[in-house]
Structure formats: C-alpha cells, structure tokens
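Narrative progress, year one. The postdoctoral researcher (J.K.) led the effort to move from monomer predictions toward full complexes, under supervision of the PI. The following entry was the first complex the group processed end to end, covering 503 residues in total.
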Amino acid sequence: MLLDDQIRRNRWKSWALFAGFFVVYAAIGAAVSFALAGWELQSNVVVFAIFAAVAIVVVGFTLFMGDDMAVAVAGGRRVTDRKQAPELWDAVETMSLAAGIQTPRTYISPDPSPNAFAAGRSERQALVCANRGLLELLDKEELEGVIAHEISHVRNLDVRLMTYAAVLAGSIALLSEFVLRGAIWGDSDSRGGIVGLVVVVLAALLAPIAALLIQLAISRRREFLADASAADLTRYPHGLASALRQLASSQAPPAHDRNAIAHLYIVPPRMFKEKAAGLFSTHPPISERLARLDGLAGGQVHVHRPRARTAAMEQALGAG
Amino acid sequence: MLIVIIVVAIVALVVWALVTYNRLVRLNVSAEEGESEIDVQLKRRHDLIPNLVQTVKGYAAHERQTLEEVTEARGAAISAHGPREQAAAEGALSQALGRLFALAESYPDLKANQNFLELQRELTATEDRIQAARRFYNTQVEALNTKIQSLPSKIVARMGNFSEREFFELEDRADAEVPSVAF
C-alpha cells in the first residue's frame, strides 16, 4: 500500500511541478515585460507570448527527452550488448525481473566517481546510468543493491518527478543566467535604473526558485523507500549497505560539476555535497540510511570482495 | 432524507466493490505475468543443459551415470506442471547439476574449456534470473492471497470467483546456486 501511495503522490507532484513551472515563467514574463515597456498592452502581450512559447517548448522537451538530457549531462554511453558490461547488464536485467518492470536502457558514464542514477518518464521509458567508478569499486551483490535502488526509483515513478525537476530547474537556471548577462551587457541607458534593478532582483530570485523546484520534488522518504524496496528486491540488504558505505567514503571526485542532475544520483556527488549542506539537502544523511539498512540486515555485514577490472570492461570503457 | 442516505450508502458500496474487484484482477494478471516470466527463465535453463552435457561428455564420457541423471532431471523439470511440482523438479535438477560441476573438478581440461566456462556462467546468471522472477511472482501471490483471505475483500473475491495461487518455493539462492568452483 505504501508503494501505491508513493506512485500516486509522484503522479500528482509531476503535474504540480509543471503547473509551478508555468506560474514561475509567467511571473518572470510579466515582470520582464513591465520592466521593458511599462504598462503598454501590446508589448506586454508580445513579451508574454514569447515567454509562454518558451515555456511550452521547455515542457515539451522535458516530457519527451528529459531522460536523454539527463544522461547527456552525465556523459553516459548506451550499453547495447551484454558483453560490453556483463555485471551491470545482468544486474539490471535481474533486478527488473524482480520488480516486474520492463528492462530499462543501460548506460555507462566514464566518470571515475562511484555513483549511479535512473531517469525517465515511465516504467517503459526509463534508463539506468552507472559511473565507471561504480563498476570498478563494487562486487556483484553490492552492484545489485545499487541497481535495485535505481530500479525501485523507476518502478515507484520517482524517476519521472526527479527527471522533470532536473530539466525544469535547469531551464530556470539557464534563464537566470540569460537575464543576468542581459543586465550586464544590455543597453545601459534604455530604461535606466528600474530595468537594471528589476533584472538583478529577478536573477537573484531565480536560483532559489530552481532550488525550490528540486526541493518540492525530492523528499527524504523517497530515498528511504527506494533503499527498503532494494532490500526487498534483492532479499539482501547487506549488499546495498556495503555499497553505500563505500560510496560515501570514496575520495574519487566527479569528473564534472553536474548540479542539474545531482539529486538524481544514489549518493550526492561530492562537489555538490560540499556546496549544498542545508537548503539543498535532497538526500537523507548516509548514516541514517545505513542504520535502517543494517536494521533490515539484522546486524550481519556483507564482506566486500574486491575484484580486478575485466578485459571486457576495459574494452567497453576504453573509448570513454 | 433517509432515502438519500441509503442511496449514498449503496453507491459507496458499489464503488468500493468495483475498486476491490479491479485490484483483484490486476493482482491476478501480474501474478500470471510473473508465472510466465518464471517459465521463460526455466526454459532458458533447460535449453542450456543439452549443450553442457555434450561438452562434459567430450572430456568425461565414462561418467555416464551423472550425465544421465542430469538429462533425466531436465526431462522431469520440463514435464512438470504447477508451481509446486515445478519447484520440486527444479530443485532435483539443481542437485544433479551440482554433482556434475563437482565432478568437473577432477578434469582439468574440462575446467579450462572455454565453452564449459561460458555455459557454467550462463547457468548461474539464469538461476539468478529464475530467483528474481520467482520473488516477483511470490510478492504478487502474497498480495492476492491476502486480499482473497481477508474480510471484507473476501466477499468480492468469492463473487468474482478468484482463487488463491500457489507460491513458487525454491530453495534460496545460496542453496540453489551452482556450487562455485575455485579455479
């Protein structure tokens, strides 16, 4: 029942997110048009129409290409054959079977930091992306635990909400940058002080709004639930617990600053973690997640089996 | 006023019955899907075995009894019907396979054979998949059976002719897994 609730809530929140996005865009459009033209109906309508058109295009992109965008930001490459990454391939297939969903597309990112995320619009239109660092670090049971966590996000429809949040927040951040640049390089004497002031205030407001969008979408419950579902799918909570322990203590920094999709990952990327302690904390502390998983595991601990990089993996990652 | 209350109560009852009925149908369908997924994975397993037997024969032809046992267990597993029967037959097959792989220990050439290694790996992966499919099926069956057994959904289940399903009980991974061979 808990899962059904979560799925329903995710559906509802996805639509609320779009509604919120339109409201934010409309407000910005109104402010900009007022700043540029004052109370002049014709120009107001034109500026507003432009904003509405942009908003519709962004939402369209989000709906149909959100997952592709997320994986493009992560630099993921599609795994099309089992031989390219047998362990990952098997883990994704097995965990999808256990969850009773269609096997999502599988990607590997050349990023050396051990991490993974899932994205997508539905069970049928989803993907799982693992970093190279993850495949190098974890053994079979640990990898299965992480993949089971991601597959749970797919089944619970968390991916839909989180992907939408990522793309929408990203687009607002982009707009914010656009407006700021406009303020710096724009025609300085056109409308004098008011325009400059409005623009700066707007830009200052936009980033927190983007953050709020992500906050709206993400709740700590979501991560706990995905951890618990993963334990249920694998019947082996020790694997995920051991994986999280290693992911949390890993020193390998992410290859790029990927703020836009940071909240998608199973553990927050390191740069993001340092930057965003308070307001941005989309994930519960690892220690709390571990405590719950260890509770499920009944005090037993998984013994990590380090493994050498296989030739097949080397080949699959070589081009990256 | 009384009539309004009665009508509202009846409508609420009908809506609840429909929702419950739909939920039962959904659970039944996904249990069925789970069952056919198990069958797909079991078939994969059965299809791998003739190849394995052939490969082992090339190196250890005189171990006829063990090989025949595997072939027989495979035949029995293929002709088994229903979760309980299937689970028992698959368990027997796992044991026969276990003996076969234990036997392979004393044939270094066989152990080094690429084809043999590949088949062994395939079998292990397939067994993982069987376990996963089984977990999904059992989860659905548990939800379905609970609905059928407990009131008030029991009444709807009775009227809709839903029947409880059997669990697919296979020894868990650790026992069913092909004994990992130390190379």
